[in-house]
């Protein structure tokens, strides 16, 4: 039995370099292992920590070694402790921050959420003491002390957690959360086909390759490149079935649960209670319940967003990444991990199959993964015809052909989806006499008008102020509104088309801010016989609605105007995905794309549904420019309240970076955000590991006290 635990205290301080040694008292040695959570004395405080290693000898003198205060009931699986260690290095973060990703829900915010665990005897447990079952004295005492029926809070059993766990493993008692383990409620959205589907030829071929990979029980990465509506979900379901049949577990990553209720619903429908749903909008208790169901092996499939990649599933056999192009897979806080990259690591660790799926895969995945193609729609329908409309010289929001098509559809009682990737009423306000533009006091960006709330707000930091009645600079009462967002578009379409029998639904971040609202809007549009759904990129996720006759993209080149090498890829995906919502379920569809850049490669390719052509061109361009997957990028942002300090820190970092053969760009100033001035450095290197090591080395010495640094490996 090891006598010393190496503990990583969970603190966000960057300077702290753990792990730290603690002497385990005799009674803890049995039960504490890698992944155990301990409350440890740390300076004058007590901190929660995770055991990352065990040893017999410490460099710290015996008499100076402290003992943990106590053990916490929950623990982290060993493979996830290892995964966290890898993430900390891979993303230039700290072990504590990476570990916080893999803890049971609620654990880092305080141990109280875990105290409601209850123990309950099973039938076998009730009989065990008198039935001659072999028990230690301690085990016997626990079983005899527990009431024959009903649950006892674990804290009141007087037994060590490890003792209870061992009894649980033998089927003598059950540990559960006191709140009834509720299966989260699913709202049914989207097309429902009756009877079991028979796989078509392409699906069968894809599944054959998958089955072989699953049967081989080793790490393999595959890309299911299937056009919109080609029946990718059915392939995921069958692959999950094959994996479960092997006794192994499954993780299914989806972009956002509220926006992809269909995929979740299909898994729950097919596998019932075997599915646990990880949902950021579940209450803390519910999330903990679902985590524990997985931890105990009661549930073997976890469906959830990015963080579900950390689901505590033992003997993992398959990770599915649905809509693998979706930007939500990249985490924006520290560590800035990419769930797709972490999923690959986890699959490798577990000897599992990674299956990424999309109609518009990322160039990286297209180049690197073994491809399985679903080239046609599952229902035998055609992909909708796409028409590109040149908006040069057009006044107003809608091209005349768009207006005509919407009018026609409204008269015929059909359904349409309109995408405008900009929320609010107007993009910015300006004074007609002195040209003042209302900007955010904390960020160098314009404030966006939200008319129904009577505010102008910053989409970067959330700053809000009342809509100005007049200009505070010159006193003029003439304030002009520029641009068009979803709120105003909704207003205009209601005026032009709306009525009791022709509802207009809006879906954007403002609407979706309320819990469950996004799903409710999708469900209402799905059930409506006719109507228009307008919204931001949220309307272009993988929804499967029958009978959408028209899809419209407004300002399709908006994403092209971002100074980012992924601008083309984003634009292509957005247009192709929206087009993919139209013409499903036996009806024919038509798509109109309004743009100021009608000749842009990404827009033309999307109009032709030519994703392979687009991707091949994109890969050639990236190879020439040494962008991913032909080079690796690391972005470092230095920030400070004082402009010169941000720049100075970035310059200093740049000098410290030694990375032969790499290209180091910057420092370049970035716009002010949340009151902080920023400067960035971008490293373009051939090898990610070397670049990360160089950055880690450069950050080993602290920079100016008033400057902070954030590192983004493989920025998205
Ligand atoms: P994707 O995710 O590829 O866009 P979906 O998985 O949503 O497509 O499937 C589109 C529709 O086709 C769904 O309604 C699904 O039930 C149906 N479908 C899937 N496979 C088949 C099949 N083999 N035969 C008939 N319909 C199918
Ligand atoms: Zn003015
Ligand atoms: Zn702001």
Describe this structure in words.
By secondary structure, the protein is an alpha/beta fold. Helix content is 31%, strand content 23%. The chain contains 22 helices and 30 strands. The strands form 7 sheets. It has a 7-stranded parallel β-sheet, with helices on both faces. Strands 16-26-25-17-24-23 form a 6-stranded parallel β-sheet, with helices on both faces. Strands 2-1-4-3-5 form a 5-stranded antiparallel β-sheet. Helix 2 (78-90) crosses helix 3, helix 8 packs parallel to helix 9 (232-245) and helix 18 (567-579) runs parallel beside helix 19. The radius of gyration is 28 Å and the shape is globular. Residues 110-115 and 179-185 have low confidence and may be disordered. Bound molecules: adenosine-5'-diphosphate and zinc ion (2 copies). Residues 191, 193, 197-200, 203, 226, 228-234, 378-379, 542, 544 line the site of adenosine-5'-diphosphate.
Q: What keyword list fits this structure?
A:
716 residues, 6-stranded parallel sheet, 22 helices, binds adenosine-5'-diphosphate, binds zinc ion
Blueprint of the fold:
Layout: E1 4-9, E2 20-23, H1 26-29, E3 36-42, E4 45-55, E5 70-75, H2 78-90, H3 95-102, E6 117-121, H4 123-127, H5 137-145, E7 152-153, H6 154-157, H7 161-169, E8 173-177, H8 201-216, E9 220-226, H9 232-245, E10 249-253, H10 261-271, E11 275-277, H11 284-295, E12 301-304, E13 316-321, H12 339-350, E14 353-358, H13 363-368, E15 370-374, E16 385-390, H14 400-412, E17 415-419, E18 428-431, E19 448-450, E20 455-457, E21 464-466, E22 479-482, H15 486-496, E23 504-507, H16 509-512, H17 517-527, E24 531-535, E25 548-553, H18 567-579, E26 590-595, H19 601-607, H20 611-625, E27 632-640, H21 643-656, E28 663-673, E29 676-685, H22 688-698, E30 707-713
Parallel strand pairs: 9-14, 9-15, 10-12, 10-13, 11-12, 13-14, 16-26, 17-24, 17-25, 23-24, 25-26
Antiparallel strand pairs: 1-2, 1-4, 3-4, 3-5, 6-7, 6-8, 18-22, 19-20, 20-21, 27-29, 27-30, 28-29
Bound molecules: adenosine-5'-diphosphate and zinc ion (2 copies).
One zinc ion is lined by residues 431, 433-434, 436, 471, 473-474, 476.
